[in-house]
Amino acid sequence: MRATLLAALAFASPLAIATAAHAAETGIVADASAPKGKLPDQARPIAYRLDLTILPDQPRFSGHAEIDVTVKAETKSLYLHGRDLTMAGARAIVGGKTIPAKWAQVDKTGTARLDFAAPLPAGRATLAFDYDAAIGDSPSSLYRVKVGTDWYSWTQFESIDARGTFPSFDEPGFKTPFTVSITTKAGDKAVSNAPETDVTRIKVDPRSAAAQYARAHKLPVPTALDVHHFQPTLPLPTYLVALMAGPYITAEGNAPPVGARTAPLPLRIVATKAQAGKLDYAIAESPRIVELLEKYFGQPFPFPKLDQIGSPVMPGAMENAGADIYGDDIILIDGNATTRRKQNFGMIVAHELSHQWFGDLVTPAWWDDIWLNESFANWMGYRIGNEWRPELNIGVGAIDEALSAMDTDALEVGRPIHQIIAENSQIDSAFDSITYGKGGQVVAMIASYLGDEEFRDGVRLHLSRHRYGNATSDEFFQALADAAHDPRVLPALKSFVDQQGVPVVDIRREGGQLVASQSRYAFLGSSPKPLTWTIPLCVRVGEKRTCSLLDKTSMAIGAAGPGAIMPNAGGAGYYRFTLSPDDWKTLIAAGPTLPAGEALAADDSLWAAFRAGKADAATLITAAKTMATAKDSNVAVDGGLRLAGLRATGLIDDASLPDYRRLISTIYGPMLAQIGFDPAAGAHKSDDPDRQKLRQDLVRMLALTAQDADVRAKLLAASDAYFAGNMQAIDQAFLAPMLALTVQKGGLPAAKTMLERALTSEDAVFRPRALNAIALSGDPAIARWVFGLADKRLRPTERINLITLLATTRETRDVTAEWLLANYDTIAAGNGIFITSRLPQVLGTQCSAERAADIQAKLGPKVKAMGAGELEFARTVEEIRHCGVLKDAKADEIAAALKAAVAG
């Protein structure tokens, strides 16, 4: 699964709160013996049969589920999973005899207990259930969204939300076939993991429960329903099951037979009717990604068909076997999409499809090892995405993501990549930047050290050993070592996977040699526990590159030689570095000529040295000016984006704001003038993708950060023409800053107009950018208006995106933080542990020791009482405290450096 912070959070809506209230009505039975994590070894599922009736225009669905199990020993009760299910009947069937059972949910995460009227004997049995439950409105379990005039439903089960849709043994270690049927409104489509076999039309008795329910709730009474039957799936865990219903549209194609696959792979793109005309790009480009993955893994696509489905509220994407679900903005794009959107398409589709092998074909035995799923897929997403369309420069994004993860990993509060999961409430903490950014980079580092072919052979060996089964991290490590015939890879992997923290490698010239010393990176004012690693260290001096395993505190690594020292050759290493002042100057001067990954790694290490109190602000500005001349767009704007981070947290104060804006204009204004800027649609379509992306970044920085008058005037003129009916007045690349300026210029009345335009649109480009424009206004009055919005057309994920952007925009940051602190209980209610665990991050741009203490006092007890989000909350408080230390130590220095830079 790929998720972003903004999209992964969902805001409490009336339906979410109603769902929580319903859970309270059904009640949770106290059971001190109930397992809080893994189920006891009482029974093992063998197969599921699911028969669900899903009418998305109705707020509840009904289900009949049967689970064939092997019972280990005679028992009077059995633990399994089911959350907020209204159970009409439960029973066990053994040898043709029925044993009635009483169902009870025994904790809020969805552990349940079956108590049998007579002892359930050891051996084979079938558990049968009839029930109904609420359909949610945010991407968790079975959820629905109204798009235009139609309702649609999707599922999102990772990590432990399958239990909200059907009774189950909801753990990744249980893989079984699923035989599914879905009853829908007549004419609606249904989608699941396996191919559909047939559809049967049935008439609805007007006296039936479904008809009576519809009349009672003033809903359309169906006269006919369709029953969709699907082939049994190959063995799957519950979290990879997919169940969808609605009046979807599809584009059909196939991935032609190549390599080991001798038959075409059926391929569909599935979307809501509002997205008609946006399916062609995905149907044309996905076969190439499938082909590249099959070539890498050395075996055919492991499932009989592939559907790729769009959802307007999906937070990223999910790798359901044979039925991947993506946010509309990811999968439904056209040839005129921006470079960044095409990059997202390639990387995320490659990520999710790589999971079909690494995660779906071979699944973690328990949530302890979910990091390996996601870390490997993150690496593959960038690798295969880059191979799919090299001109899009997708691969460098992996390094950028890893560098960002280092800031989280460097905190004293945290976790290793591979962490012990003892309780259900801990599971979703594994889906964070440590798993994706750090884990992906650790995989890249090991692959680079071993060599591409040796690493690939280890992956293939791992898949062949555990095909359609489960595996652990240690089994993967062993496959790598066995394939590479290099046991040294094991301690290197384990040192990064099994302990928290970021190494910092100091490289010095001593007596004609390079000497490398390692320590644990620490922010200014922080004192984390000292650690050492076995670091695959690749250093380049001039044109000479050498690699070694740094497994000591200090060791010589080769001849010094002339030229700039690049301590992270290729940028693939998961470590930061420091140099002598002279070597830093030489490396910064060479920065624009470095490969993009190396330049980004150098920039990150320099900024890390600043945050550790070992570099000055003037050097950061020098580096930003120097790197701006780099050919790669990511490198060229990196310094400006990092300076913007200082402004967001208040390290650049209001008094220094004119100098800051002038500096941004001085560095990046001439760059935009050189490459030119016409906001009209398609005006720059002949430029290469990276140049297009550079222009997009420059326009945004100059318009919103530097407030450049000429750029703003062009965008506002385009806005007038666009809203007067000229849809060609603005290119997708510049839509977001244009809309933001429109709201900034018009204030609260413009924000209200923009909201109405957004909520009456289903365009996956316009709608989210129009809503974001409201939050980027920098106007506290608009922020207060947003807090009180009660428009039911505003979706839960959209509402939290608004709040998050308000909380990270300097001018509205504090008023939003106060509102969040006052309303945290309401916001978090009914949203599940995945969402609640990430909510504290929204406060991350606060910046002072006093503020950290205040937030700890006000919010800490609430987070603890909820039993979710404690790790993210502790991280956020520590980040706020570190920011305050840095502000106290460096704010005056930053102000002086800005003044000197623009005066010169």
Automatic annotation (TrEMBL):
<keyword id="KW-0645">Protease</keyword>
<dbReference type="InterPro" id="IPR027268">
    <property type="entry name" value="Peptidase_M4/M1_CTD_sf"/>
</dbReference>
<dbReference type="InterPro" id="IPR042097">
    <property type="entry name" value="Aminopeptidase_N-like_N_sf"/>
</dbReference>
<feature type="domain" description="Peptidase M1 membrane alanine aminopeptidase">
    <location>
        <begin position="281"/>
        <end position="485"/>
    </location>
</feature>
<dbReference type="InterPro" id="IPR014782">
    <property type="entry name" value="Peptidase_M1_dom"/>
</dbReference>
<dbReference type="Pfam" id="PF01433">
    <property type="entry name" value="Peptidase_M1"/>
</dbReference>
<keyword id="KW-0031">Aminopeptidase</keyword>
<dbReference type="Pfam" id="PF17900">
    <property type="entry name" value="Peptidase_M1_N"/>
</dbReference>
<keyword id="KW-0378">Hydrolase</keyword>
<dbReference type="GO" id="GO:0016787">
    <property type="term" value="F:hydrolase activity"/>
</dbReference>
<feature type="domain" description="Aminopeptidase N-like N-terminal">
    <location>
        <begin position="45"/>
        <end position="203"/>
    </location>
</feature>
<keyword id="KW-0479">Metal-binding</keyword>
<feature type="signal peptide">
    <location>
        <begin position="1"/>
        <end position="23"/>
    </location>
</feature>
<keyword id="KW-0862">Zinc</keyword>
<dbReference type="InterPro" id="IPR001930">
    <property type="entry name" value="Peptidase_M1"/>
</dbReference>
<dbReference type="Pfam" id="PF11838">
    <property type="entry name" value="ERAP1_C"/>
</dbReference>
<keyword id="KW-0482">Metalloprotease</keyword>
<dbReference type="InterPro" id="IPR045357">
    <property type="entry name" value="Aminopeptidase_N-like_N"/>
</dbReference>
<dbReference type="InterPro" id="IPR024571">
    <property type="entry name" value="ERAP1-like_C_dom"/>
</dbReference>
<feature type="domain" description="ERAP1-like C-terminal">
    <location>
        <begin position="565"/>
        <end position="880"/>
    </location>
</feature>
<comment type="similarity">
    <text>Belongs to the peptidase M1 family.</text>
</comment>
<dbReference type="InterPro" id="IPR034016">
    <property type="entry name" value="M1_APN-typ"/>
</dbReference>
<dbReference type="InterPro" id="IPR050344">
    <property type="entry name" value="Peptidase_M1_aminopeptidases"/>
</dbReference>
<keyword id="KW-0732">Signal</keyword>
<protein>
    <recommendedName>
        <fullName>Aminopeptidase</fullName>
        <ecNumber>3.4.11.-</ecNumber>
    </recommendedName>
</protein>
